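Appendix B. Extra example for self-study. Work through it before the problem class; the solution is given directly after the inputs so you can check yourself.
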Amino acid sequence: MVNKEEKQLDIPEGEFLAAREDVVKKVLEQQPADEILYDLAELFKVFGDSTRIKILYSLFETELCVYDIARLLNLSQSSVSHQLRILKTSKLVKFRREGKSVFYSLDDEHVREIISMGMEHVEE
Amino acid sequence: MVNKEEKQLDIPEGEFLAAREDVVKKVLEQQPADEILYDLAELFKVFGDSTRIKILYSLFETELCVYDIARLLNLSQSSVSHQLRILKTSKLVKFRREGKSVFYSLDDEHVREIISMGMEHVEE
DNA sequence: TATACATATGTTCATCTGTTCATATGTATA
DNA sequence: TATACATATGAACAGATGAACATATGTATA
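Solution. Structure tokens for the complete assembly:
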């Protein structure tokens, strides 16, 4: 598609350049709005931390309270709480209070799907 | 440190605790190895930057050379090259040299799928 | 080989992020 | 209400990260 052989001077360089220009323009048009791409990056950023990944994975099959997550993953209560806050803000987990405990669970089927997709890539 | 709640003696706290213990154990067993979860986080970390997301998105439909990516996204050549290196290392893009130019393209169908999944979440 | 072009890489620096510690808030029960 | 437990939050600090600049490497052609 982008032809480099069109280099020798006897070939119309102008057209070649125009062709690349077209490709660039077309790609630019298909690109989603900056704001959306920014949000998308922000979303992946949330998945991009092993502590948060572990927490999310822990919630794959069952809801868990903060204390149990901390115990399970050998993390401090504070650390877990901070990370859950981030996951909550990103709408990846939801929670319900039961007595003194707060139980967290996955908020969205996408979470499972996104992680599974990533897994496939990693496991190769 | 672990059993904070075995306090009221008249209720069969032991069974309750054992039940939670079981859940925690089961979750822990289902959890993939730390190393894999770490790699998974690393993978998502790569997606977690808007520059890299833009680059990947640009490559959705066509291969592009470094210079065109830079021009397209209004980035410095250096910046693009650095980011492409990261994408290359993560096996998200591949490249081929053609004369003085290097053309990059998506290396993996997973890339498209992962980004699309993320998009669905973001676009809600 | 000398030159120009395209890309890659090393370094520096400002900023961002995750953890820890201390403390506050919320909840249940004596 | 006083106490203990469970969770949340604020502040500070160390380590990570991305951008920019300068420079090196790779390639084609005169």
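Self-check: Residues 4-5, 7, 49, 51, 75-76, 78-79, 82-83, 97, 99-101 of chain B lie near DNA strand D (CB under 10 Å from a C1'). If your reasoning did not lead you there, revisit section 3.
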